[in-house]
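Cross-posted from the bioinformatics board.
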Amino acid sequence: MNRRNFVSLLSQLLVFLPFGGTFGAFLKSADKSLTAEAVTGQRYAMGIQISECIGCGRCVVACKTENNVPRKPFFFRTWVERYIIKKDDEVIVQSKDGGVGAFTETVKEKDILRSFFVPKLCNHCDNPPCAQVCPVGATFQTVEGIVLVDENRCIGCSYCIQACPYGARYMHPEKHTADKCTLCYHRIKKGMLPACVEVCPMQARVFGDLNSGASPLARLKRMKNISVLKPGLNTKPKVFYTDLDGEVR
Amino acid sequence: MKIFFTKVPDPIIRLVIVFGVFFGVILFVRGFVIPKELKEKGIHRTSAIERELASEIHYAGSGICAECHDEEYDLKNEGYHQKLSCEVCHGPAMEHTEEPDDFTPPAPRQRKFCPECHTYNPSRPTGFPQINPVAHNPLRPCIDCHNPHDPKPLTVPRECSACHAQIAITKAGSHHVMLECTVCHDTPDEHKSTPRLIRAGKPVKRDLCASCHDKDSGVKEVPKIDVYTHGEKYVCWQCHSPHMPEVNHE
């Protein structure tokens, strides 16, 4: 084959170039089971009724017990905040020990305009900023839409802790990897409720499958006024609050 | 064969050996040194998910308690604590479901336990039963009087003040002190058992206030006004607080 023939053959082969894309698309379509499962399978999420919460902190204790979260303060997968809006419009947010052992009073009752408790946890966003910034891909979403951390991949750089707009992550003091709420993945896959939902004495926390119309959460979303935290960030959070006050950040 | 080797120049053979070793090492590292889970391409880390699923369960869920402790379970499910899971008070009990004799979940009997939920706190929702632990029978354990599986006030609350203490205190210092709550509020019986579901009513018309405060009413020594023309479209209590009506300035 001389040089002329070689170049001519090469240019003829260019005709097949577009087929490469088609072939790639075909390979991807073989992987469709993933997207199909995401639509028809379970999509777990949580609802929180703020008007029911009594701020007892049982959920925080249960979470720490169930998931072996360090007992010391500052390490929380879920925690309770107390909001106090004073008559002079000053807003006070407290979360001493994350709400363990209930809240003791610090503001005179006659100064309080309104006050309530807000339990918080990982929002399991559909667009998780923590997963975007992870340099090693240790944070990922399962098909059920739950954001998990692969502790064997995590290098402990803390980028995700900075990136989370809800402050839902912490650096595990012994493992030195990022840690966060898993929505009690090991429990819900066995048909049980997350530990915090299990022990909530007021059933302020509601757990369920968004794709099932009969789940308690789907019912809550139908019946109540629902808000999410920081909707403007387009993180598409999946913790749904009822009766959320505008002051809650 | 020998002729072929003699034909290939020496530097080429060395290069081939070097590359051979290079790729050999790469294949070895990829095949045996790098752990399998780091080679997964998909977003679903099977190994991470398996690890997560293998975590120990501590809370058993209250359904399983009913299998043995059906009496307590049924009692609880009929009372005010029906929404509570057993493990709220008794703590994580998975171990107990596996080895009932070796591990017994604690039953909190001290006085300090119940006030964690039932101490008065202005942030708690109204209607939730709250006490002041300093004033409420000090030093006596709660379970002396209240059965935790079926807690209720020792007597069915006759007085609205059992729950609406704040309003009762305000009203006690007002001109309306002699009026029973039920004069203005209609209170269905169910309001006592399910206070937040069945709510007490408020007057929707002016007739109630008018029966004393209208200029034509016969009642003496109360402020009077032409109730039906005064205040346009509002019901009286939307402007005047009936629990603390304005002091007479005359």
